[in-house]
Design brief:
Order of helices and strands: EEEEEEEEEEE
Helix content: under 10%
Shape: globular
Largest sheet: 11 strands, antiparallel
Radius of gyration: 17 Å
Amino acid sequence: MKVPIAMVDVPIRTTKFLTITPSYLYYEVPPPSELNVPETFNEHQFRIDGTLKFAIRKFEIADRNMYVRRFLPTDDINRYRQRIGIAYPLAVNGRIWKPFANYEAFYDWRNGGWNKNRVGLGVTLPLHKHVLFQPSYIWESNRGVTDISYLQFGLIFSTR
């Protein structure tokens, strides 16, 4: 199944340790072919987050707190997401690889409060001077729904 996704983040570093990031996300999911219905589910999201990032020795710690306004076809929902992550840079063949792990909890005002948890493991790999590749394994537990796990691949473009 093809799922078109578009996302734009604009990180604004406000202090040495704090970054504020407004962002926009759009995605659409076509209905399963067995349903034989023309309607595609789509969602728009406006997000804003604050991330505190600091180091203890070589360990990089990040605490992100995000507010999400989800614009769904039926109604709008507010969500809070809190993620804590840790990364450790490793020199490999003259390049820096960053293995990471993170834990994220979701709070939905309309859907019963704390109702979703996510654990991620992956690595950030440099491809070129301003391009990073980030494969990761994600496991999600969503109260009332079957747990899922999946692979996620990201490309990160930087102007620094």
